[in-house]
């Protein structure tokens, strides 16, 4: 500890302050555990809490299983085999991430309901009368389908990148020992990819627990919907804190389970000569099946929903005044750009601190700063609003002296919303920046310091210019996630402040699903463009 303190300078103290700022709001959730129980909490605990847990566990379990199956199988096809349209599917299978699950949820409901294109075509064109209940997607299986289709790219991307970096020797050795394609996949690929698969699945699970739009629209009772209901319907923030604390405990159990499933087995190269996987040419029916499988998943997860949204966009064009749409776009862009810029700036400072201070304390502080991404948005919203109300109460005398009419200033401003974004999405920017720091090392920094440059000058003149790729990719990833974010924005936005995501959600909730298409398509277009750019940067880094 004394050695750590003795090495502190202005930059390291700033880094510690940033970490405390990111971690602080979540501490208010722990306070909720010690608050006295009121009648609402007693009722929920006795009659409803078990249903919240059961629904959440079922969603998490089945979505995790299905995304692992889809993501891993597609990643292995793309990494190992050559077949028609493989180059297109390699990056196109990431595009479903550009569609927020709640947009996919209301789009598929519109496609499959009684007046949707599927049932209308069956009745009017084919003269087939069907039971509408067969196409009801607004239930547990429907929610699992939606989550699977629009979240499997987390597993696909991580596993595909992992397999692309593996040595061909492993596969060739398995073939020489008589293993066929299925034997290689189950006996070699799955064991060595376990860490990557579990890592991708854990991101999927955290997204499911964080989601509010799908479960709200489909009428499922989960922790997120319960937090919204107790807060907005009952006006009971104490019970919301207890539910948030319960959900945080559930998330901690998931993270512990992830560590256990990863196991202690490690696979490393036995030779320094590493040859990448050589693509196996598929021909005939095998090539056709591979292309069909990829096309089927791509169509269900991206092409069909986007085609339906475009049709609705044409039908409702002009119904939403352009001035209103421009305001939603401006609001979304401003908060996303400001938040992403601050996150990257903070990540550069904290990442540099993590790189230069190799001790246990520095590592622990850095790990704490990225915990926000593992905490659902509804929980962070409760934590941040509670912290800001307390801050406003503390600053109340100052507001009086300044002649302000209200003692609630910060807690009804964009500052609170942007703070919540920083806490929630800091890990995304930090992971990109940390990877950039690992790539450039410390040799150039050390050379700059030996030549007499100060710490600050070295940071801006040496480190930052060499980190351009990591900065751009980190900014893009954060910007996408904030553009799509729902729970935080719905709870913490100032009065009369709407983004594209919240407006699309409101239109869908009011059963104006056609009108929701305009904001939805714009979110998808921006996110898809950003994903394409990010994928090109990733390929450039790997080449």
Could you explain how this protein is built, in words?
- It is a single chain.
- With 543 residues, this protein is an all-alpha fold.
- It is built from 25 helices and two strands.
- A two-stranded parallel sheet has the order 1-2.
- The chain is globular.
- The protein starts with a helix and ends with a helix.
Question: What tags apply to this protein structure?
Answer:
single chain, 543 residues, mainly alpha, two-stranded parallel sheet, 25 helices, 2 strands, 1% strand
Which H/E pattern describes the elements?
HHHHEHHHHHHHHHHEHHHHHHHHHHH
* Quaternary organisation of the protein chains: single chain
Counted by DSSP, the helix tally is 25
> Low-confidence parts lasting 5 or more residues at pLDDT below 50?
none
How many DSSP-defined strands? 2
**For the residues shown, what is the average pLDDT?**
81
Euclidean distance between termini CA atoms: 42 Å
Shape: globular
Helical/strand content category: mainly alpha
Strand order of the largest sheet: 1-2
How much β-strand is present in the residues?
under 5%
- Largest sheet properties: 2 strands, parallel
Radius of gyration: 25 Å
Helix content: over 70%
Helix and strand arrangement:
Elements: H1 2-6, H2 10-23, H3 27-32, H4 39-80, E1 81-82, H5 86-92, H6 101-112, H7 117-124, H8 140-164, H9 168-176, H10 181-192, H11 194-210, H12 213-217, H13 223-233, H14 237-262, E2 280-281, H15 284-316, H16 322-356, H17 360-369, H18 377-401, H19 414-440, H20 443-450, H21 455-466, H22 468-484, H23 487-492, H24 500-509, H25 516-542
Parallel strand pairs: 1-2
């Amino acid at each position: 500890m004394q050695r750590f303190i003795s090495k502190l300078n202005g930059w390291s103290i700033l880094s510690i302050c940033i970490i405390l700022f990111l971690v602080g709001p979540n501490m208010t959730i722990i306070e909720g555990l010690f608050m006295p129980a009121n009648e609402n909490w007693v009722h929920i605990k006795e009659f409803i809490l078990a249903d919240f847990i059961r629904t959440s566990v079922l969603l998490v379990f089945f979505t995790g299983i299905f995304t692992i199956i889809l993501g891993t199988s597609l990643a292995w096809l793309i990494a190992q085999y050559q077949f028609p349209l493989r180059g297109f599917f390699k990056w196109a299978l990431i595009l479903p991430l550009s569609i927020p699950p709640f947009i996919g949820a209301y789009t598929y409901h519109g496609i499959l309901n009684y007046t949707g294109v599927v049932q209308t075509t069956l009745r009017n064109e084919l003269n087939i009368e069907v039971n509408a209940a067969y196409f009801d997607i607004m239930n547990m299986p429907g929610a699992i389908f939606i989550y699977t289709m629009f979240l499997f790219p987390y597993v696909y991307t991580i596993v595909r990148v992992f397999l692309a970096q593996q040595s061909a020797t492993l596969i060739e050795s398995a073939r020489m020992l008589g293993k066929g394609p299925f034997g290689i996949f189950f006996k070699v690929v799955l064991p060595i990819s376990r860490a990557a698969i579990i890592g991708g699945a854990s991101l999927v699970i955290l997204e499911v627990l964080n989601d509010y739009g799908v479960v709200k629209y489909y009428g499922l009772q989960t922790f997120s919907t319960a937090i919204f209901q107790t807060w907005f319907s009952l006006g009971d923030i104490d019970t919301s804190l207890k539910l948030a604390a319960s959900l945080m405990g559930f998330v901690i159990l998931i993270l512990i389970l992830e560590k256990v499933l990863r196991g202690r087995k490690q696979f490393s190269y036995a030779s320094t000569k590493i040859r990448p996987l050589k693509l196996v040419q598929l021909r005939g029916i095998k090539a056709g099946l591979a292309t069909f499988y990829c096309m089927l998943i791509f169509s269900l997860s991206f092409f069909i929903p986007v085609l339906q949204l475009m049709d609705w966009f044409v039908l409702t064009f002009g119904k939403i005044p352009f001035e209103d749409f421009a305001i939603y776009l401006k609001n979304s862009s401003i908060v996303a750009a400001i938040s992403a810029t601050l996150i990257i700036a903070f990540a550069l400072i904290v990442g540099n601190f993590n790189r230069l201070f190799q001790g246990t304390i520095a590592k622990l502080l850095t790990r704490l700063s990225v915990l926000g991404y593992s905490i659902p948005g509804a929980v962070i919203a409760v934590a941040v609003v509670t912290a800001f109300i307390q801050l406003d109460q503390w600053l109340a005398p100052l507001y009086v002296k300044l002649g302000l009419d209200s003692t609630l200033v910060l807690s009804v401003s964009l500052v609170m919303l942007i703070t919540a974004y920083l806490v929630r999405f800091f890990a995304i920017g930090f992971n990109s920046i940390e990877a950039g720091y690992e790539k450039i090392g410390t040799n150039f920094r050390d050379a700059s310091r030996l030549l007499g440059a100060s710490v600050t000058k070295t940071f801006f003149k040496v480190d930052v210019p060499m980190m351009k790729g990591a900065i751009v990719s980190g900014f893009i990833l954060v910007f996408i996630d904030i553009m799509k974010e729902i729970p935080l924005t719905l709870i913490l936005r100032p009065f009369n402040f709407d983004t594209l995501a919240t407006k699309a959600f409101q239109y869908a909730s009011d059963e104006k699903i056609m009108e929701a298409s305009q904001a939805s398509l714009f979110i998808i277009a921006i996110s898809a463009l950003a994903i394409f750019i990010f994928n090109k940067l990733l390929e450039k880094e790997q080449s």
